[in-house]
Every structure is written in C-alpha cells, then in structure tokens.
C-alpha cells in the first residue's frame, strides 16, 4: 500500500484519528466518573497518545521524521514521570514538589518546542526569518499579556510572593508560550493550513490551560482538588490531540511549500497595530496598578517592561524586513518587467522573422507562392489592372544534373537579381520553387506587359559566370491579364497554361493566355483519361515502315510505329497523343507494350528474311530505372536476338540525360548486341562530342535535309554530304528519312547514304502487309 493509499480517508467509516479522539474522550470520562480508576485511566490515555504518535510515524512516514521523534520523546517524558509518581505513591513515598520527578515534566516543553520548530518546511530564507521573527513577537507579546493579565493579578489578589514552588509552577505556562509560538511559526512558514497542524495548535492551548490551572492551584497552597483535576484533564486533552494529529492522514500528504506564505496585507496591518497598541497599553496599565496599590516590586516592573521592549524591537525588525522585502520585490518586478519587455521585443522580432520566412524564398529572399497568392488576391479586387507573368528556365534540370545543385542555386540567385533589376519598384517578383518565377505587374496590361515579358526573356539569355563555368540558359514565359471574375487559383492555372504553351512552341519566348489554351488543356486532360483507359484495354496497334538498302531497294529493317485504334471511333494519329503520353508519363507503359508487341511480330521476319527491327524510345522511358530489364524481358519473351533490335532515340535524350541513367541503360544494352540510332539528326543539339563518345551505332538524317528541286537543293546536297562524311569518319551507319521520289533515292545513294526510308518505298503498314511485302521483295530478288 502506498502512502497516498494509506492517507486516503475511508468513505464508509471515520478516520483513525477521529476514532482515537472519541476513544480518548470515553476513557477520560470514565476516569472522571470513577476516582479509583482515574490514575490508571489517565495513565492509559497518556500511553495511548505515545503509541498513537509512534503508529502515525510508522504509518504515514512523514517527510520530516526528526521533529515527530522529538514530539514522541516529549510525550514519553511526562508518561515516565507519571509512572514514577504512581509507583512512589503506591510505595507510600511522597515525592517533594518541586523534586526530581518534576524535572521530567519540564523536559517535555523543550522537546515539544523543538518538534514544532522543525515541522514546517522552509520555503526560503525570507520565509524562515519571517516565521522566526513573528514567533518571537507573539512569544514576547504573549508573555506580557500573560504576566499582566493572569500572573500578576493572581499574585496581587492573594498578596502572595513568588515562592520556589510557585516560581516552578509559573515556568510551565511560560514554557507553554513556546509551544503556542511554535504553532504560530508553523502557521506562518507552513505551505498551507492542514488539519493536523490545527490539532497541534489546540494541543498547545490545552497544555497552556492546564499549566495555568496548575499554577493557580500551587499559588493557592495546593488546595482545591477540582483545580488539579481540571489541570490533569487539560494535560490529557493536549496529549490526545497530539496523538490525533500524528494519526491524521494529512500528515502524509503535506506538500512542499513553493514559496513564502503570503499573509493578507490587511490582516497583517491589523495584527501589528493591535500588538503596538495592546502590549504597551497592558504594560502601562499593569505598572500604574502596581504603583497605585503600593505593592510594586522588581518583577512587576522588569518582566512586562523587558518583554514589551523586546516585542517592539522584534516588531520593528519585522517591519524593516517587510519593507526590505517589498523593496526587493519591487526591484525584482522592475527587472522582470524589463526582462519581459526584452522578451516581448525578441518575440516580436522572432515573429517577424518567422513571418518573413513563411512568406519568402530562403535562397533568393523573394516572396514565395503563398505571398504571391495574397498579392494576386488583393490585385483582383483592386481598382487598377494588373498582369501575372509565369517564367520557367529552359533546361535548368540539365544544369543541375551536370554541375550539381550548388551551381544550380547560384544560377537561380543571379537570375533572380537580373529579373528584379528589370522590374519597377511596385512590381512583385516571386520564386515559386525550383526554376519557376512569377511576376505581378501592377497597373500594366496588354502589349506593355508583353514588352516587359520579352525584356525578362532577353535578360535570362545573357550568360552567367558561376565558378569556373559559363552557363547559358533561356526562359519560357506565360502571361495573363487579371480578371476579377476569376479566383486566384484560376489565374494561376491560366498563366501556367500560357507558360506550357510557350514551352510547347519552342521555348525562349512569351505567350499570352488565350481561351483556346484552356480548351486545349481540357482536350489534353480528356486525352490523358482516354489514353489511360486505352492502355488498360490495349486499344493500340503497331504499324511498320520499311527501311531499304539504297543499292537494291531491298527491305532490311522495319520501324515500329504505334497507332491508337479506339473500339468506338476512328484511329488517332500519333501526333495527337504521343506528346500527351510523354507529358503524363503514360509513354512508359505504352512504350513497353509497343516494344513487346513489335518484338513478337518481328521475330518471324528476322528468322525468314534477316530483317531487323527499330523501335522509338522516349526520354521518359530511358529515365526509368528498370528500362534495361524491360528490353531484356521483351527480347527473351519473343525470341528475337538482341543484335536484331535497334533503339531509336532523339538527340534531346543524350543532351538532357547528361551522361546519367540513359547512357547507363544504352551502354548495358549495346553489350548484349542491341544497336542504338540517333533519330532526326541535325534538328536538335547536334554535337561532335556526343557522336564521338556516346553509345550510338547509326544516325537517321532528318527529312529536312533531303534535297529538293530549286536553289535550296544545292545547299541541302552540301549539308547531307557533310553529314554522311562525318558519319563515315566515325564509323556510324546512316539512314535518311523522308525519301519521296526515285530521284531523291538515287541522289542519296550516290552521296554515300546506306539506307533510306519514306513514302517512295512504303507508308507505315500493318504486320500482315509487312509479311506480304517481304515475301514479294525476296521473290523479286530471286
């Protein structure tokens, strides 16, 4: 059982301390009613009080044990004295008064006082000093009042001098003042008024009443058994109350004080005023009475005067302490006030900083998306027109991948400074994240806004020096005039559509929002939904366009081209859904399906006619970590040899990848025999560096270089001859796209091109048509 459980009062029966009080009253009443049993009844109750304190200490284990041991010793001493007195009386021996037995009674008071002195837990130096001073004040004041009100009148009325017996008897009530003052100190220093401390105070008062009664009994010459009986009852009540206090549950749950107990100022003022008025008044009245009666002697003067002086000195000391404490607290409050002001200032500064961080980009210090939205919302309801611009850097991911994120961050910081320098003071430039910026132009719209957008694009084109790197980048810009009929989210959506249109139109340009863009976006969204459903249903077909040897126009390879064939509508050409599939990421599952289907169709053509297969691969597919495994599984499932497969990639794949995931995949696939061709060569980022070092086997020259009639034809012949010579020097095969006439085929053959592809030879055809075409070619060959 825990202390808290032991201390918890029962809800069905009285507590142990109450039973003890009731039992003590019953035994005491029995002793009063039966004089023969009186000594034994009183002795039994004193013994019970000692036992109660011992049980309380063991049961509740109070935090401060030593004071309770002192109280236990204080109750044990008179118990021993009473036992000795009873034994002497039974033996016919009468103990003199005062005598050795009375010494035991005297020892009780210092022991009880020491116990009460240690009961309150100190809550600080000031609280301890206050309790000690107030104890002294009440003790001296009590001594004055006790002498002037009780002792001196009793002696005067009986015309009795203080005999040794009376002086010894007077020591008891005077020492009771210590007990009462100990109780006062307990109330002053203690953290709260507890029931057990109230019982201790009542016990002290009972002891004082008994000792006063005994003093009067002694002064009367020892007569009056009623007075002695009353004194014994008071002593017994005091012992019972101490025992009850030890058994009270509150003794176990007393709390540690958190600070000095604060007395109400009005009560304190009234108490001290009463002491200042009553104590000197009582002393004065006592002295005047003694002088007028003509019986004034030394004790009549010295005792009250000394006690009064000490009381006033202690009272002044206490008031000085209160003033000092008040001044100290005032200084502490001033310090706390100043500290609070500093804390509030720091908090306000921190709140401003946090607010700034919440609304600004940490890299550039520009407003972020949240602050931009707030300002766009304000501009939508403002009186002047405004324009929202969205700007995105072209190819920023490539710079991050090639040179690292620190270089990319440095580029962003420089671009932000340039953009800010091209704007007016009232315009808002925000960084939305990554390489995306936004500008809110106040009181600007139409062509003026377009002019500012083009100015921003030109500023981005300028090279940027970052460390040892000279970086070049461009920007695509979308522009939208604010419309108060629309929400902020709709404004951001529209300007984002304009930005997307700028990128789709070739980047490095400004595109203003048009309602058609929203319709196009809706169409793209529907296309994505349709593509997703079509992939689940496999609503696609693969057509093949032959690649022929220009020497004899025999088909040596076929290029797989996907066609969307909805079950509830006409076929959809690739130019209407391939770009949507790439942007949405659906090109990954679609491309994997085309690869598997084409390998299954081509394996028979390869075994019968030696025909190879070419399959287009997008940037998005090559960025997938499992692309190599997808190709291997398609080859294994179909049985097509690896050397019979050519993967066609665009130049943008190699440039955008920067030597990363795509190069890793292509290098690994070339080790097992898969060939790699660069499609649409000459229209993108043509570079001798990647032709020389990257894993490619051939190039497909874009149809834009195929010679046509007229002055341009001669220039195209020169260009295509240069490309063919370059490929030959690098040991790369060549294929020309877009061959539409026999003259073009002969010319390209004469220039040294190996393979050709175009409508002159065949349009894209189905797998069945490929089978018939190949069979006819071989029949003609033989």
Task: Give a short synopsis of this structure.
By secondary structure, the protein is an alpha/beta fold.
> How many DSSP-defined strands?
15
Helical content (DSSP H or I, runs of 4+): 55-70%
Structural domains: how many: 3
CATH topology of the largest domain: TIM Barrel
The CATH homologous superfamily of the largest domain is named EAL domain
Largest sheet descriptor: 8 strands, mixed, barrel
Q: Give the overall average pLDDT.
A: 79
Query: Roughly how many Å is the radius of gyration?
Result: 55 Å
CATH architecture of the largest domain, please?
Alpha-Beta Barrel
Task: Present the secondary structure layout.
Layout: H1 3-7, H2 16-33, H3 38-60, H4 65-90, H5 100-118, H6 125-157, H7 164-189, H8 195-219, H9 225-247, H10 265-293, H11 298-359, H12 369-380, E1 386-394, H13 396-403, H14 405-421, E2 428-433, E3 436-442, H15 447-461, E4 464-466, E5 469-471, E6 474-481, H16 488-504, E7 510-512, H17 515-537, E8 540-549, E9 554-564, H18 578-584, H19 587-609, E10 612-616, H20 619-622, H21 627-638, E11 645-650, H22 651-657, H23 661-671, E12 675-681, H24 688-693, E13 698-701, H25 711-729, E14 733-736, H26 742-751, E15 755-756, H27 767-781
Parallel strand pairs: 6-7, 9-10, 10-11, 11-12, 12-13, 13-14, 14-15
Antiparallel strand pairs: 1-3, 1-6, 2-3, 4-5, 8-9, 8-15
Protein name: Diguanylate cyclase (GGDEF)-like protein
Organism: Catenuloplanes atrovinosus
Domain GGDEF: 384-515
